[in-house]
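User: Second chain of the day. Same drill as before.
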Amino acid sequence: MTAAPLTTDPRSRYRIEPTVLQALRSPRILTREILAGLVVAIALIPEAIAFSIIAGVDPRLGLFSSFIMAVAISFLGGRPAMITAATGAIALVIAPVAREHGMDYFIATVLLGGAIQVVLALLGVAKLMRFIPRSVMVGFVNALAILIFVSQVPQLIGVPWMVYPLVVVGLLIMYLMPRLTRVVPAPLVAIVLLTGAAVVFGIAVPTVGDQGALPESLPQLFLPNVPLTWETLGIIFPFAAAMAVVGLLESLMTAKLVDEITDTHSRKTREAWGQGVANILSGAFGGMGGCAMIGQTMINVKASGARTRISTFLAGVFLLILVLALGDVVAVIPMAALVAVMIVVSVATFDWHSIRLATLRRMSKSETLVMVVTVAITVWTHNLALGVGAGVVAAMILFARRVAHFTTVTREVIADDLGDIARYTVDGELFFASSNDLTTQFAYTHDPARVVIDMSHSHVWDASTVAALDAIHTKYAHLGTVVTIEGMNEATIRFHQRLSGELGAAH
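Assistant: Same format as last time:
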């Protein structure tokens, strides 16, 4: 009996089940997706309003942006079930434009930022995700969990005392509900029960309506009135470029996180240009732009169990229905209910295994340090992009330092008919970190008139190594010593021949 051959169709790698068609045919899955979308929509409202305030624009812009981007990415994105909407990271990046230059320049920045994202996607920026180490990813997840929790703290300070029992009850509901049934998402049950209790018993606590005004009309096409000049480009381009990079990094990192949670693969390049198009559409209707929302994505995927584009699409649709048709109902939802939801999300998101003593003992110190750097920079700056960037740089430095110590040079003196020969065997990868002290490992004045450098166990990766080999040859030449380099592989020979003697004076 022969085993069935493995499929070679690359498209199967990205087939994520259940598909939209499968969900539409299954009442159980469809119900889960609908309810998940409703929960996310409710959670989006206060966040979108808060991010609008951070950006210094009308709260309606954040809500419109969230609606447009969620609906657009449900069709265009490469990661099903991921939520895209107005975010704090984007708000922080482009806030100075609204404050210093007004709304027209602000919207122009959003449009340009989306266009830059599309260009970066076409250039293959998503492929750079392979260079993000696992330790950075773990740090990203842990920092995200901390930031989600910290963002709820203001809702727990200086508030009526009844907020605290409501939060506790919400936490208990979400802890116990999944043990009884998973048909209805626990966050939705908590929101409905706490809202009902607050209304029935007249409990005076902060509500969603206290966060800002809700829109009363549909978003309209908006074209920014800015001069098409180099001066305008000079004003908006730095902010648009920063928005594009930050948005893509957060979105692609979130997509990778969802991939790991759901044990599936998603199309990162499609997600990248989908984010860009969604931002362009958001700007075209007067929205503030955004990117993947990690907290809401975790609510959708982890807390509610959604897996398809239906939940993302309905999150946007429900958001619009809630703020336009049911604005009065949404306004009475106590913030305590949403705080409880986000606390559960933060606890579920944190990788507790990564900080267990047994894990820390097994992990190398460099891996742990990279995770700590990522968490520390992210929490300190409240910018996930900066934290990930710092983590990647730290990982690169520590990796280069570790690999540099794997290079060894051994010396032996052998005799033949013509006299003694000093034979050096170089073992390891040679690049700037490992080859900088290569010149110090030769006994120039003590060596006989002939020297052989055996490189059959090494590989030359950069110009620094070629320069080091030139320096060694020059030092021996000054002493009248004949040097022979042997054992180079073909790639090293070509690289060495192209650069040797062309890098300036050797020292």
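DSSP finds 20 helices and six strands in the chain.

User: Great, on to the next one.
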